[in-house]
Design brief:
Blueprint: H1 9-14, E1 22-25, E2 30-33, E3 36-37, H2 38-44, H3 47-56, H4 62-73, H5 80-85, H6 95-109, H7 119-145, H8 158-167, H9 178-191, H10 198-207, H11 213-224, H12 232-245, H13 250-258, H14 279-295, H15 299-314, H16 316-320, H17 328-338, H18 345-366
Antiparallel strand pairs: 1-2, 2-3
Helix pairs in contact: 3-18, 4-7, 6-7, 6-11, 7-8, 7-18, 9-14, 9-18, 10-11, 10-18, 11-18, 12-15, 12-17, 14-17
The structure holds s-citryldethia Coenzyme A.
């Protein structure tokens, strides 16, 4: 009930690795960060406090949180040469490769702090990443809309600073809506970690070669970009807009999915682990109405989303395959209501997932037993055979 979980030896043989960071029970729909239920953290904590918990293993004292917050606020600025880095990208570039390139480039600016076994260098790299990724993301947005970059304002909190750098202008004062800050802070908490998902496993695998933190996180960003993983939140919006633009016939779309026409899927549904309702989706759905009412979301898309969910939860095809809404199903509607373009939704996923990636990379570096290392395979190819000269083929 309390303390450390004991592992069933049989389970250990099938697991990719062991980890003490996040616990998921896919059948019961349970998610805990360092033992704390996601429902309690969503209600009572903040994104920075959850980041501290994931990375250092305990909830911070008031002094520890103040120190952590202060350290991060001192590293939000990008090196001016890295700022120029954005000039090289086309304006219509997708922000995810921009993000992974800029994060990888950080290792060229901080060559004196890349040693994964020097605690001080790991610490400063952790703080730099947490502080600079929001700035990099905001600059990727500003580049895409041809607007000037705003320097960070270190008197603001992390999420507020990100929103100001994204939607603010040098020409006038920009007051960030506190409802927007709270909503985004909550979404970042819900995305902060999720055990050995595709992108986190990528971070651990790349890090297992003793690659530095920036290189490993850059690889994780690339893995998250895939539409079956982090790209799903954008794909959900495109799916909802497609249903709306073709007349809003939800049943017709559901039939296409069931008939597997053109490989179409119900984006935002299903999960490798959750064979029950994703607890994050339940929290997001609960707040989606509130947030969208306050921010003025597109009700027609929310209505289509709710109709899709009703169809899926009552249709044997989806129920038999245990396909329930996952974390991505409602988030896109909220991000859109906040003013983000669809292709930026996965960037927001990456901002939320960053502390989890860092926590896993540090755990693996500190404990070789938790390394994924070098996975083996089951060979299913040709048995041995002799070479044939080209004249005999
Ligand atoms: C994330 O791992 C994590 O923790 C990830 C994540 C995190 O926080 O890091 O939670 C974030 O990636 C959430 C998932 C976001 N992706 C999507 O919403 C894309 C749509 N979903 C799927 O592509 C799919 O559900 C997966 C990949 C997420 C999970 O697939 P599963 O559970 O392994 O199921 P499967 O691929 O083995 O399919 C089983 C059956 C198949 O049908 P049959 O061959 O049995 O007839 O279910 C069908 C699939 O065709 N199916 C779907 C479906 N997902 C699976 N049919 C329609 N719509 C879907 N979404």
């Amino acid at each position: 009930k309390t303390g450390l979980v004991t592992l069933d030896p049989g389970f250990v043989n099938t697991a990719a690795c062991s980890s003490a960071i996040t616990y998921i029970d896919g059948d019961a729909g349970i998610l805990r960060y360092r033992g704390y239920p996601i429902e309690q953290l969503a209600e009572k904590s903040s994104f920075l406090e959850v980041s501290y918990l994931l990375i250092y293993g305990e909830l911070p004292t008031a002094a520890e949180l103040e120190d952590f917050t202060h350290k991060i606020s001192r590293h939000t600025l990008l090196h001016e040469d890295l700022k120029r880095f954005f000039d090289g990208f086309p304006r219509d570039a997708h922000p995810m490769p921009v993000l992974s390139s800029a994060v990888s480039a950080l290792s060229t600016f901080y060559q004196d702090s890349l040693n994964p076994f020097d605690p001080n260098q790991v610490e400063i790299s952790t703080i730099r990443l947490l502080a600079k990724l929001p700035t990099i993301a905001a600059y990727a947005y500003k580049k895409s809309v041809g607007q000037p970059f705003l320097y960070p304002d270190n008197s603001l909190g992390l999420v507020e600073n990100f929103l100001r750098m994204t939607f603010g202008f040098p020409a006038e004062n920009y007051d960030v809506d506190p409802d927007l800050v709270r909503a985004l802070d909550l979404l970042f908490i819900l995305h902060a970690d999720h055990e050995q998902n595709c992108s986190t496993s990528t971070v651990r695998l790349v890090g297992s070669s003793e690659a530095n933190l920036f290189a490993s996180i850059s690889a994780g960003i690339n893995a998250l970009f895939g539409p079956l993983h982090g790209g799903a939140n954008s794909a959900v919006l495109e799916m909802l807009e497609g249903i709306r633009d073709s007349g809003g016939d939800v049943q017709a779309f559901v039939n296409k999915v069931k008939n597997k026409e053109d490989g179409v899927k119900l984006m935002g549904f299903g999960h490798r682990v959750y064979k029950n309702y994703d607890p994050r989706a339940a929290i997001i759905k609960k707040t989606a109405d509130d947030i969208l009412n306050k921010l003025g979301g597109d009700d027609s898309l929310l209505d289509i989303a709710k109709q899709l969910e009703e169809h899926a939860l009552s249709d044997e095809y989806f129920v038999s395959r245990k396909l329930y809404p996952n974390v991505d199903f409602y988030t896109g509607l909220i991000y859109r209501a906040m003013g983000f373009p669809t292709k930026f939704f996965t960037v927001l996923f990456a901002l939320g997932r960053l502390p989890g990636w860092i926590a896993h990379w540090r755990e693996m570096m500190n404990d070789p037993a938790t390394k994924i290392g070098r996975p083996r395979q089951v060979y299913i190819g040709q048995t041995e055979r002799d070479y044939k000269p080209v004249a005999e083929r």
